[in-house]
Amino acid sequence: xxxxxxxxxxxxxxxxxxxxxxxxxxxxxxxxxxxxxxxxxxxxxxxxxxxxxxxxxxxxxxxxxxxxxxxxxxxxxxxxxxxxxxxxxxxxxxxxxxxxxxxxxxxxxxxxxxxxxxxxxxxxxxxxxxxxxxxxxxxxxxxxxxxxxxxxxxxxxxxxxxxxxxxxxxxxxxxxxxxxxxxxxxxxxxxxxxxxxxxxxxxxxxxxxxxxxxxxxxxxxxxxxxxxxxxxxxxxxxxxxxxxxxxxxxxxxxxxxxxxxxxxxxxxxxxxxxxxxxxxxxxxxxxxxxxxxxxxxxxxxxxxxxxxxxxxxxxxxxxxxxxxxxxxxxxxxxxxxxxxxxxxxxxxxxxxxxxxxxxxxxxxxxxxxxxxx
Length: 373
Ligand SMILES: C[S@@+](CC[C@H](N)C(=O)[O-])C[C@H]1O[C@@H](n2cnc3c(N)ncnc32)[C@H](O)[C@@H]1O
Known about the structure:
This protein is of the alpha/beta class. The protein folds into two domains: about 55-115, no CATH class; about 115-350, Alpha/beta knot (3-Layer(aba) Sandwich), CATH 3.40.1280. The chain has helices spanning about 30-70, 75-115, 130-150, 165-170, 185-190, 230-240, 250, 265-275, 280-285, 320-325, 335-345, 345-355, and strands at about 10, 25-30, 115-120, 155-160, 180-185, 200, 215-220, 245, 300, 305, 360-365, 370. Strand 3 (about 115-120), helix 3 and strand 4 (about 155-160) form a beta-alpha-beta unit. Helix 3 (about 130-150) packs across helix 4 (about 165-170) and helix 8 packs antiparallel against helix 9. Bound molecules: S-adenosylmethionine (SAM). This is tRNA (guanine(9)-N(1))-methyltransferase. One of its GO terms (biological process) is tRNA N1-guanine methylation. It is an enzyme of class 2 (transferase). Keywords: Methyltransferase, S-adenosyl-L-methionine, Transferase.
């Protein structure tokens, strides 16, 4: 909304301190407010990051102290026994992880032959900012990790994977080893012989997806755009003369904002539906609580959830949430970014684990995680 004081000008100093010795630049009151808000946000973010770093360092230090105390309180025989049993636990965990890894490879290879085909259309690279491309690459990483974990994975394609988008993806640890179809051509060329089976998933379609057809190839638009390009995927499907469909969200849920979801949320829904054939549970698992109807006008922090029709979920205006989504953060019920990176680069992970087991002081813990002291 236009600020009544829009016409008045002031210096760029966020505090309105006109004694700032730096060269001054006139800013409208609205711009000043925005600047202040941005600075407050950056300061909050830095504080949060520093606090988290401190908390982790303290936790690590406490573990180290506890371990040392424990070791020192033991006789040499007890100490040797404890180290031995930790070593065994570590080996057991590695064996289990290797087995899981083999199973995962088997599942993904099988999916490449018989799995439901899903395409992530990466042809919109030139429409996005560098941050949005980064966010999308993280969402793709989550998709791949979820697919690898699934007992019933899809046959996943990345099409139009070129330029900045490809460069970003290549920075993901282990990306070159992913079991996925990487295609530089757009899907309309790469899958031209199956054009009649292509179905673009788009919130703007009039068709509601009731079931998944194993012959169909479902396309998800690789876009992080806060719905700046409203209708872009629907228009694309129309121009190309391919089918389109929207998820049946409205039949099962009331959303607090729009029904436009992020790429990884849509992909999670597909995966969940393939496993359960139950849309409701698929939506509940993949769509975070705060995006489901949580009382109209309910505020999230300082600002309200965007409610305009078809606003992208990334249009949720609370700063932290906006940032989370921009960074591709996956929400409730999902894995952490760290876990995701670990899963997607597990070839390297396996190798480094092998090396770690040679260390006598490796400590296996109950939940299978390991600390090197
Ligand atoms: C962040 S959205 C992109 C929104 C973009 N403005 C558009 O017009 O598609 C990412 C992709 O997820 C898929 N998607 C999101 N919400 C959907 C819904 N409710 N039904 C079907 N597909 C959806 C679409 O393929 C969409 O392109």
